[in-house]
Amino acid sequence: AFPESSLKVTGVDFLKSQNTREHHTDGYNNQNLVVRRGQPFQVQVSLNRELRAADKLSLRFGIGENPLKNRGSLLSLKPEREDFNGWKISVVKRNGKECLLSVTSSPNAPVGKYNLHVKTGANIYKPENGVIYLLFNPWCEDDAVYMASEAQKNEYVLNDTGYIYVGSAYNIYDRPWNFGQFEEFVLDACMYLLDKSKLSLTDRRDPGTVSRAMSALVNANDDNGVVLGNWSGNYISGTSPMDWIGSVTILQKYYKTKKPVRYGQCWVFAGVLNTVMRCLGVPSRCVSTFDAAHDTEENLRVDIYLNEKGEKLNSLSFDSVWNFHVWNDVWMKRTDLPNGFDGWQAIDSTPQEQSQGRFQCGPCPVKAVREGDVYLPFDSKFVYAEVNADRVYWVVKKVNGKDKYFKVGTETQAIGKNISTKAVGQNRREDITREYKYPEGSREERMSMQRAYSFIRPSGLVPRSGYASTIQTLGGNTQPLVPKEPVTQSGLHLEITNTEPLHPGNPLEMAITVKISTPGSWTVELTGSCQLQYYTGKVQANLGTIKETINLEGLSEMQVPLKIAPDAYMKTLSSVEDEVLILVTAIAEVKETNDKLTKETSMRFEYPPITVQMPETAKLYNDFTCAFIFKNKLNVTLENCKLLVEGLGIFKMTTFEQGDIMPGRIMKSEIICTPTRLGEKKIVAKLISNQIKGISTEKGIIITE
């Protein structure tokens, strides 16, 4: 008889197209096999002879630098044997020298990159492209990130485009954003971040720990993470936060240089974190809150200081109200918490406050915010304050040469409005405020608030500024347990609106409406101011003020105009690098009753649109032309115009320098597109100039075979 020839492997086929289709990973632009945990995938092993009963064959999966069995980082799987750490392997069929194997990883296996080797007797075969990427699996019922709804998974895991909602509560608008989690090097960048996080293998099993680590690594603070934040208005040494239209360029650049990419503000952090979480397989959405409190002491109160003209003062405020703030919700079971807190968890990578010594935030159960269970990890007090604080207005007056503070109003319903995300399967805004808080004034809201207040001890009502040596003028009135909207004796009510469209280069025409709902004759002193401010609430310029005394009889109202000439603001508008909003603040005092009321509204400039011209459908790999047209309908020249365009699966990020566009002039740019992926694709365009930062648009196209 011939001596037994030793069994050797001659090749391994990872059956990429079949496996990735079944695992919903066929979108990843990657050489290697990408699969999700807890779900079988197949590999075909070719041998130098037929497999016999006595042969020893095992698949070895190793993760990390130096895989060891006793550390759990090396798994040795033999067909038909009992499982190993929850992994199993079986022979599907043998056909001569071919052997088809099915591998099922554990539904709580550590996510990351595994090296596959095949061992036969004493021989070890190392296939080329033998690295397998293992991701979280929202399609697997035993995975902590399991999500039942197919439509939701299509949106929160597989959709690589979307919107981030910005602006102000008075006018919300959508900023298209390309998440691009399937683009080249994006998955590798996420794997690099996982390695950089130094999470243990056990921690890599848990989507909660992974999402907390990613919230820390997406900002550059502490750990040389992905994006460097900058709110200074000076972006000369990098890219202005306004100039990004997606996460792809950022993550690719970071992966190439391993250095933080300059610069980001909150929507950039949220856009990138959303890409990272979707890329790793955790369902994720961008969440925008309008009038979000950034409260530095968790005392559930934000103090706003005004001068006697009604203009907001930057210098005194430690805490602030941002016109909007964007974070992310990720979907998972919280096995570390009591029952009832599964589902959406808030995480935030904008570096605002340290948590356990690092700039990271969450996961905080959204239900804990709604129920007032703010003792639960992680950072739930901070998230609760962002959406539930009160806003208190103080006027600073000089009395005998000293600053004295006079309280002119408290708003209890002004913070955490219009909490928004993109709707599932539709290009529209969905309001999810009800997931974060009960209806204002409802019994549930009162109970939730009492519960939260039992964990957060709000301080008494004194101004928090460093200059507040004048506390005695206020008396020691502490906050009631459940604050109520102040009801004035005269039934005083204020409304702020714009009476003409707010086009840059035109006068800003606004109005403050004073209403009285109690019979009698009333004298109202009205102070109004108009300022330009950043979305962080920081004032950039004072544009004008009005002071009027008006007389109202009985149930009546009066509209007081507030008009700002173009010269008063155009210079500031052209010199700032950020998008600014128009802030109008009104203070009304009723002489007869000493009632005081304050109201503020932020409004956004309105811009002419960009139009995109292209066919509605195109065939795979067949070129088509896409044209971008913009007519400057404003009566100012737009200087140094740049058009930024990107189409995932169609063309890479491209910039057109357009120079100056005079009033009435039309700009047209064309790009030749070659679609490389099937399905519905989107093209996103953004126009940036000295005067205007925020004109963007998008258009969809269906790519067919």
From TrEMBL:
Cofactor stoichiometry and binding remark: Binds 1 Ca(2+) ion per subunit.
Residue intervals of the Transglutaminase-like domain: 258-351
EC number(s) recorded for this UniProt protein: 2.3.2.13
Positions of Ca(2+) binding: N388, D390, E440, E445
InterPro entries: Ig-like_fold (IPR013783), Ig_E-set (IPR014756), Papain-like_cys_pep_sf (IPR038765), Transglutaminase (IPR050779), Transglutaminase-like (IPR002931), Transglutaminase-like_sf (IPR036985), Transglutaminase_animal (IPR023608), Transglutaminase_AS (IPR013808)
Keyword Calcium among record annotations: yes
Keywords per UniProt: Acyltransferase, Calcium, Metal-binding, Transferase
A GO molecular-function annotation: protein-glutamine gamma-glutamyltransferase activity
Keyword Aminoacyl-tRNA synthetase (UniProt): no
Cofactor requirements of the protein: Ca(2+)
Active site: C266, H325, D348
Similarity comment: Belongs to the transglutaminase superfamily. Transglutaminase family.
Protein's UniProt name: protein-glutamine gamma-glutamyltransferase
